[in-house]
Structure formats: C-alpha cells, structure tokens
Amino acid sequence: MPEATTPPPSSQPPAATGPVATTIEATPEQLASVRYDDDGLVVAIVQDDVTNAVLMQAYMNAETLAMSLAQGRTVFWSRSRQEIWRKGDTSGEHQYIRSAHFDCDGDALLFRVEQLGGGACHTGQYSCFHNPFGAADDTNTHLQDHA
Amino acid sequence: MPEATTPPPSSQPPAATGPVATTIEATPEQLASVRYDDDGLVVAIVQDDVTNAVLMQAYMNAETLAMSLAQGRTVFWSRSRQEIWRKGDTSGEHQYIRSAHFDCDGDALLFRVEQLGGGACHTGQYSCFHNPFGAADDTNTHLQDHA
Lengths: 147, 147
Prior knowledge:
The structure is a homodimer. Chain A is of the alpha+beta class. Chain A is 15% helix and 27% strand. Chain A has one domain: Phosphoribosyl-AMP cyclohydrolase (Ubiquitin-like (UB roll), Roll). Chain A contains three helices and seven strands, in the order H-E-E-H-E-E-E-E-E-H. Chain A has a four-stranded mixed sheet with strand order 2-1-6-5. A two-stranded antiparallel sheet of chain A has the order 3-4. The N and C termini of chain A lie far apart (43 Å).
C-alpha cells in the first residue's frame, strides 16, 4: 500500500460546501396579501436564522420580493440608488433565506437567513442595529457570540 | 406552633411582581441620529427579549420615540388612526423595553422587549409575522416554545 501523498494538482474546484439556496414557492394568495406603499415598496426585516439577531431592515418591491423567493437569497430595492440590490453581490455578504413571512396586515416582511461573511452591515459590523440608545451595551455582539 | 391556616383576607393588593419599566437616557447625539421620513416617521421593529422572535413592526415619530425611551414601554404612531398608540393600553399586551438601538443610517429602530399577555398581534397570535410564504411552518411557534 503506498504511503499517503499530497493529492495531485487538479483543475477541479473544491466540492461546494457553501450554503444552498432554496426556492420558496409562494402561492398567488400569499403574494396578493402583500401591501405596497405609494412608492411600491414594503418593509423587509432580516433576522439571522442561527443567532436570532435582527441584522438589517431594507425595502423590497414586488419584483425583488419575487426574485428573493425564487432565488432563495435576499434581493432589495435600493431607495438611494433606485436600483435592484442583491445583497452580497458586492460585499460577499450573501443572505440565504431559510424562511419568509408576511405580517398580519401585509405591510412588513420577515426573512430568516443564513448570513455569510462578517455580517450584514456595510460598516463592517455584524448587525446594522449596533448603535444603542443610552449607555453602550453589547446586545448584538452577545447574540453573535452565541452563534 | 399553630397549624398553617389560610391567610386572612386583606385589602392590600398582592405585591407587584410584574415587569419594571426602565427609562433609557438617550443622548442628544443619539436622538439626532434618527432620520424621519417625509411623514415624520421611522420604522420600529420589536423583538422579544426572551425568545428572540420578531414580534411586530410599526412606526414612531419623534414624540413617541421620546415617550418610549422615557416610559420604558413602546409607544407608536398609528398611521391608520393618526394618533399616539401606547402598546397594550387596550389589549393589556404591554411591551417593556429592555434595549433600544438605531441602525447604521438611522432610519430604523430595534426594540428588544418583555412582551406581556399572549403576544403582540391584534389577531391573538404571538407574533404578527405568523403568515409564511410557501408551505406552512411553525417557526414563530417554535421560538415561542423556547420561552
């Protein structure tokens, strides 16, 4: 039996071990329950499915909600840039959707996600909600430590 | 030594064992970081401090944010009724604030609360986000079971 050797160089990439995107098959009735504001937008809240930390809040329109459910990744509408914004395409901080809910009156959405990279915030922080009112605390860091 | 007896009737109410409201002393700089929309409103997300479930999303204006921080309880602005809405005054489902954060660009707030009563939703559900896209699941019930 030969000794263990270094594997030969290969042109094959490593086997994919990253998260898997899962399409969510929403019904027409579910999609019709969403109420958009005068700008065609709905509040989207993103929560870490592992740590339960609330990571960020952004907006979706009907098109980016449909894209999010189909692709299994969060896609928002950027109000400042007035363009579609698929989370992580620039930063690598993709969000893979594990569940999606709409609220009782259909004007807010909640996505539980697998957050890739260091976190959700463009500042480099784990959560966008890292600024406390009152004395400083470590609530979100604390939640992250439990991951 | 006398036998144990039923305590005598008393006109005193039971000792208060409910949650304690705690004022959050926000600095002027923190309050100035909040960005209100054209209607003077900011997104407010409410998360259960015990179960970590996202309970509801509503709006605050500068007045009801100040009331919330001072009273240690969530106070919203009702867009439909155009009036101040202190959560739980009608339903008993008060929310005692355990921490409050604003996000990186100041246009969303996150309150971690002690939720009283059966939950946050006017439908009687624990969380307003009880409607899944796709097949039914028990995400929020599951979270509640961990309380």
